[in-house]
């Protein structure tokens, strides 16, 4: 159907798609603009001048409530922990599922269940379990586990998609040439799936970095960034809130762009190596 | 070789352990605690049905569940409608693969940013002095600000559609991309018009994707509490919000009983979707 002329349906749907993208990005851009509100400006339009006052206040002044720096560094470390664990565990599980093994069915359904069980149940359950066993919940233990129940199913599903398209002939060729199983994995399988692993890592990091419901009852005495932001919404009535929104959104976008650029570079390098 | 026979077990062990510790055990704990007793300061082991009794016999519970189901049905219908056409546009109207990937990423990026901030971002837009009210007033369409825009059911549904449509777009896009284009060609050669192709070829083949997207959206909305609390300004109720309030009051056994009921309801809904559509082929 590639060569035919565009019908009216195309133009209607293009308009619809543009509206959808505006719907996705429009609200986000309003807080982006409002975070540059002048020193006397409020939470809504009109802009009362333009300034960096609220960024300054966010980064350098002690806030009445909250600890932006601490929350950010906790979320960052937690995101990196979740990212690494998600990549390694999903990769291993993805490799396991390439073969039939006893219990593979139940494990698969359990992973899907992890995606379906509402977040607040995971939050409540882990909070209660720690309570019952007399453990102190903390962002690096209970919240870490809670985030993994959300990121691992995504990681595993991506690995399924990857290995479904993976041609086993590459591995057979490596084996025929005398490679050990480890060499086959390290020199043949890993380079091929590396871009997808970066994608899994991106999901692991961003889903953890932004997770709210699963952290609510599991973070212990110190807040992660989303909890901190949520706390601010009830207390803060200045555009500092928007400045925080802008800063964390730009950070998320930077992470996404770095991951996408890495994937593109890896793909290109591999294509060049195959061609040369 | 023995190593290659036990390799899958070793490889699956970390996933199994993590899910056992942070999914199975916590849910077992919820079920256990739902039979416990509590007073205003602590919870203690027991085997009572009062938590379930109090939950089921309260008319507030029923209203809350009905309200949650109402959100679920509306959000599901809107995200399905929007998500299907977005996916359809990307799959059938965008002709270059690169462009498809770029536009798909444009849709995906907001999903990877903070939900809370995406909710906050509606405030300057929908508020009493928000952009929308100001625009409508300056255009002379309304005399005074519309009050129902923010902190209402409308705002809750709007925010949920904003947050969750991508969960519909992705699986549907995935199934649409796998439809053999020759089938559409064949339908056209056999004299089908665009509408007939859509209803007789594309939608039946897209059903698994629609089912997966529906499962995502239904479970997300059923368990949601933060969007409801934030966007309704505390004026509407949902099951998740009711649980969050019970948790805040340290009534853990009551929250646990609610959690068990919610989980059963969600699983029934998922089972119903799976009965209608077979998604095996997708996995």
TrEMBL record, chain A:
Gene3D superfamilies: MetI-like. It is found in: Cell membrane. The chain crosses the membrane at residues 12-36, 76-95, 107-133, 139-163, 184-207, 240-266. Its main location: membrane. Signal peptide: none annotated. Residues 72-259 form the ABC transmembrane type-1 domain. It is a multi-pass membrane protein. The keyword Zinc-finger does not apply. GO terms for biological process: transmembrane transport. It comes from the Bacteria. Keywords: Cell membrane, Membrane, Transmembrane, Transmembrane helix, Transport. The keyword Cell membrane applies. GO terms for cellular component: plasma membrane. Belongs to the binding-protein-dependent transport system permease family. CysTW subfamily. PANTHER family: PUTRESCINE TRANSPORT SYSTEM PERMEASE PROTEIN POTI. This is Putative spermidine/putrescine transport system permease protein.
UniProtKB/TrEMBL annotation, chain B:
InterPro entries: MetI-like, MetI-like_sf. Its main location: membrane. The chain crosses the membrane at residues 12-36, 71-90, 102-126, 146-169, 252-277. Residues 65-273 form the ABC transmembrane type-1 domain. GO terms for biological process: transmembrane transport. It is found in: Cell membrane. Keywords: Cell membrane, Membrane, Transmembrane, Transmembrane helix, Transport. Pfam families: BPD_transp_1. GO terms for cellular component: plasma membrane. It is a multi-pass membrane protein. It comes from the Bacteria. Belongs to the binding-protein-dependent transport system permease family. CysTW subfamily. This is Putative spermidine/putrescine transport system permease protein.
């Amino acid at each position: 159907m590639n060569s035919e002329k565009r019908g009216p349906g195309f133009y209607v749907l293009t308009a619809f798609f543009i509206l959808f993208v505006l719907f996705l990005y429009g609200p986000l851009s309003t807080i982006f603009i409002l975070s540059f509100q002048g020193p006397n400006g409020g939470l809504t339009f009109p802009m009362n001048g333009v300034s960096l006052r609220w960024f300054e206040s966010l980064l350098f002044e002690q806030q009445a409530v909250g600890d932006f720096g601490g929350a950010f560094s906790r979320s960052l470390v937690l995101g990196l922990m979740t990212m690494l664990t998600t990549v390694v565990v999903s990769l291993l599980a993805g490799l396991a599922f390439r073969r039939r093994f006893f219990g593979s069915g139940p494990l698969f359904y359990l992973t899907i269940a992890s995606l379906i069980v509402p977040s607040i149940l995971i939050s409540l359950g882990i909070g209660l379990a720690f309570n019952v066993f007399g453990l102190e919940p903390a962002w690096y233990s209970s919240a870490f586990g809670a985030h993994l129940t959300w990121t691992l199913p995504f990681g595993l599903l991506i690995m399924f998609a990857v290995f479904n398209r993976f041609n086993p002939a590459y591995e057979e060729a490596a084996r025929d040439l005398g490679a050990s199983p480890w060499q086959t994995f390290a020199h043949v399988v890993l380079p091929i799936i590396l871009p997808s692993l970066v994608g899994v890592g991106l999901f692991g990091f961003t889903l953890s970095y932004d997770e709210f419901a699963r952290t609510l009852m599991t973070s212990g005495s110190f807040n992660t960034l989303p909890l901190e932001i949520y706390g601010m919404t009830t207390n803060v009535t200045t555009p500092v809130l928007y400045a925080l929104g802008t800063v964390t959104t730009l950070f998320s976008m930077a992470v996404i762009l770095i991951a996408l650029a890495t994937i593109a570079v890896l793909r290109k390098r591999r294509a060049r190596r195959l061609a040369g | 070789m023995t190593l290659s026979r036990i390799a899958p077990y070793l490889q699956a062990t970390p996933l199994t352990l993590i899910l056992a510790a942070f999914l199975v055990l916590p849910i077992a704990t919820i079920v256990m605690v739902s039979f416990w007793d509590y007073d205003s300061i602590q919870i203690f082991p027991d085997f009572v049905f009062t938590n379930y009794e109090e939950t089921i016999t309260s008319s507030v519970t029923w209203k809350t569940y009905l309200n949650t189901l109402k959100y679920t049905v509306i959000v599901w219908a809107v995200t399905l409608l929007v998500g299907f056409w977005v996916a359809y546009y990307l799959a059938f109207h965008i002709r270059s693969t690169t462009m498809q990937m770029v536009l798909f990423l444009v849709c995906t990026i907001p999903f990877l940013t903070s939900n809370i901030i995406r909710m906050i971002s509606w405030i300057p837009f929908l508020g009493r002095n928000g952009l929308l009210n100001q625009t409508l007033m300056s255009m002379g369409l309304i005399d005074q600000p519309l009050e129902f825009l923010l902190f209402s059911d409308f705002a809750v549904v709007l925010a949920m559609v904003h947050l969750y449509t991508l969960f519909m777009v992705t699986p549907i896009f995935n199934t649409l991309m796998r439809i053999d284009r020759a089938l559409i060609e064949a339908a056209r050669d056999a004299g089908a018009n665009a509408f007939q192709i859509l209803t007789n070829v594309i939608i039946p083949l897209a059903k698994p994707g629609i089912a997966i997207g529906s499962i995502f959206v239904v479970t997300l909305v059923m368990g949601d509490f933060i969007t409801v609390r934030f966007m309704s300004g505390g004026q509407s109720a949902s099951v998740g919000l009711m649980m969050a309030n019970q948790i805040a009051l340290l009534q853990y056994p009551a929250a646990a009983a609610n959690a068990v009921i919610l989980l059963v309801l969600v699983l029934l809904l998922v089972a119903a979707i799976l009965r209608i559509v077979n998604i095996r082929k997708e996995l």
